[in-house]
């Protein structure tokens, strides 16, 4: 089956975002209110210039790159809005979430477009023409102007969407459609497209029969690459913006769903469908995601993590019961959800468990059930465990990590039973504290030191134990440490280190207290 790529272009994305805020999501359906042209300005080359326009501004003759003062002189009633690329990017990502209803393979295309890999998905929507029509009609009802084209190559779909008028291009029909399009339709850098036009190569058809070697020498290899990608001769992989689920199940509802209990009941039914797929592959889910598509286009993503691989529908539904209670205030059902999808984003091998005579699965891991419930309610970082780190610096050798895998906890010995160096103190400070020490140079142990406004005289000392810096973290110039085990005249034992090698790394090493033995 040949690849089929749907390209969607939003020619007036910033203007549509503002129009939805001002006049509601159905402003396109009702018709644009009587309002002056809307433009977006930003500071470019030390001047305020137009970077985006709405359709009315384009009809009155305004252009992108035009000075804002000149544009206001042409249209005194002009509505000039500060350009907000972050808000536009968030709006584009929200539209990408909305497109998940058609395929999980959705990729961002610059600042005003999307790529959808709909290979094998079109028949679910009545064919490619019906799918394109459904996409455009739904976006129109949401107040977003869009153009869309399906073809076998991302470059061809991109070119036809922005410069052509075809909605579906059959395999093998690309060259006749590309020929009359301008060279800018090949996604070339602006300077390359301008250079081609200066020598009379204004249309893609002028390049199709031209010798390739002279083109590459004069205009660079990017020209031939983009040309081959548009013709489908060079593969162009897409990078989905979100991980593709291993398993998923969804329901398209005839009537929007609002009640949380009905959502949980539907989630349990979807979990049964997912369980059958997991059992066929002998796997259990570790990370689940519930997608709720609201009728106004907004998409909610609710994720739940399992401490052990799961394929039991009741336990999966229980995870989302806790999660929905945790995000209840942020989950606005509005007029209801029209699509509910349950996906498994990460799965692991699940060995079959022995059941008792009652036929009920053995719940031999109450810790896993507790971790799942608490983490789903309060977040994955609410439970922490002490763990050893891959570092030879004392302050980095241990720490706390979120509890995510109960099997790893049950299968590893407690920290107290692990082999620790006997020459390490019972208490190590999170941050070494500076001390004033008197010692023989270059590598002598301290004779006395002042710490926390108290003077200590050393009776015995062991060391040094040299610990080099972790240059891959701290840099190559970070000083070396020499650790000493110190006992004062009162019998108190301390762990000090000298930072910096005398004469080689520094002329005046510094001393620090890093821990106490008792």
TrEMBL record:
Its cofactor is Mg(2+). Residues 35-161 form the UmuC domain. Residues 246-353 form the DNA polymerase Y-family little finger domain. The keyword Magnesium does not apply. Keywords: DNA damage. Its EC number is 2.7.7.7. The keyword Transmembrane helix does not apply. It catalyses: DNA(n) + a 2'-deoxyribonucleoside 5'-triphosphate = DNA(n+1) + diphosphate. Pfam families: IMS (PF00817), IMS_C (PF11799). Poorly processive, error-prone DNA polymerase involved in untargeted mutagenesis. Copies undamaged DNA at stalled replication forks, which arise in vivo from mismatched or misaligned primer ends. These misaligned primers can be extended by PolIV. Exhibits no 3'-5' exonuclease (proofreading) activity. May be involved in translesional synthesis, in conjunction with the beta clamp from PolIII. Monomer. Belongs to the DNA polymerase type-Y family. This is DNA-directed DNA polymerase.
């Amino acid at each position: 089956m040949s690849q089929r790529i749907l390209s969607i272009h939003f020619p007036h994305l910033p203007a549509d975002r503002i129009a939805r805020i001002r006049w509601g999501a159905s402003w396109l359906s009702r018709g644009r209110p009587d309002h002056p042209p809307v433009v977006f300005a930003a500071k470019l080359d030390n001047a305020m210039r137009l970077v985006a326009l709405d359709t009315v501004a384009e009809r009155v003759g305004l252009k992108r790159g035009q000075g804002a003062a000149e544009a206001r002189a042409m249209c005194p009633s002009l509505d000039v809005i500060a350009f907000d690329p972050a808000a536009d990017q968030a709006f584009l990502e929200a539209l990408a979430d909305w497109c998940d209803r058609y395929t999980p393979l959705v990729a961002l295309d610059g600042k005003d477009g999307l790529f959808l890999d709909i290979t094998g998905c079109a028949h679910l929507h009545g064919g490619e023409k019906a799918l394109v029509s459904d996409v455009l009609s739904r976006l129109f009802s949401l107040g977003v102007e869009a153009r869309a084209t399906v073809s076998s190559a991302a470059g061809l779909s991109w070119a036809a969407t922005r410069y052509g008028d075809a909605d579906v291009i059959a395999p093998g029909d690309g060259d006749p459609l590309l020929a009359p399009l301008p060279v800018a339709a090949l996604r070339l850098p602006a300077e390359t497209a301008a250079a081609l036009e200066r020598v009379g190569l204004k249309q893609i058809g002028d390049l199709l029969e031209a010798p390739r070697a002279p083109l590459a020498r004069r205009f660079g290899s990017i020209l031939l690459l983009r040309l081959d990608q548009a013709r489908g001769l060079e593969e162009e992989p897409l990078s989905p913006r979100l991980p593709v689920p291993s398993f998923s199940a969804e329901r398209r509802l005839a009537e929007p769903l609002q009640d949380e209990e009905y959502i949980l009941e539907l989630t349990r039914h979807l979990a049964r469908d997912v369980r059958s797929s997991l059992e066929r592959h002998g796997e259990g889910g570790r990370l689940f995601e519930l997608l709720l598509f609201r009728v106004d286009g907004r998409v909610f993503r609710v994720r739940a993590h399992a401490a052990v691989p799961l394929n039991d529908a009741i336990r999966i539904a229980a995870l989302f019961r806790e999660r929905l209670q945790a995000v209840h205030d942020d989950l606005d059902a509005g007029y209801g959800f029209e699509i509910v999808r349950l996906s498994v984003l990460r799965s692991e091998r699940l060995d079959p468990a022995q059941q008792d005579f009652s036929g009920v699965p053995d719940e031999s891991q109450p810790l896993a059930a507790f971790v799942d419930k608490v983490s789903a309610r309060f977040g994955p970082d609410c439970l922490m465990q002490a763990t050893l780190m891959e570092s030879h610096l004392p302050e980095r050798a241990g720490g706390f990590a979120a509890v995510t895998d109960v099997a790893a906890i049950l299968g590893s010995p407690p920290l107290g039973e692990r082999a620790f160096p006997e020459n390490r103190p019972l208490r190590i400070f999170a941050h070494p504290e500076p001390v004033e020490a008197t010692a023989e140079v270059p590598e002598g142990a301290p004779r006395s030191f002042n710490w926390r406004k108290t003077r200590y005289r050393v009776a015995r000392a062991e060391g040094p134990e040299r610990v080099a810096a972790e240059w891959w973290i701290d840099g190559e110039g970070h000083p070396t440490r020499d650790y000493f085990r110190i006992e004062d005249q009162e019998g108190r034992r301390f762990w000090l280190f000298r930072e910096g090698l005398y004469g080689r790394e520094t002329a005046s090493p510094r001393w620090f207290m890093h821990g106490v033995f008792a």
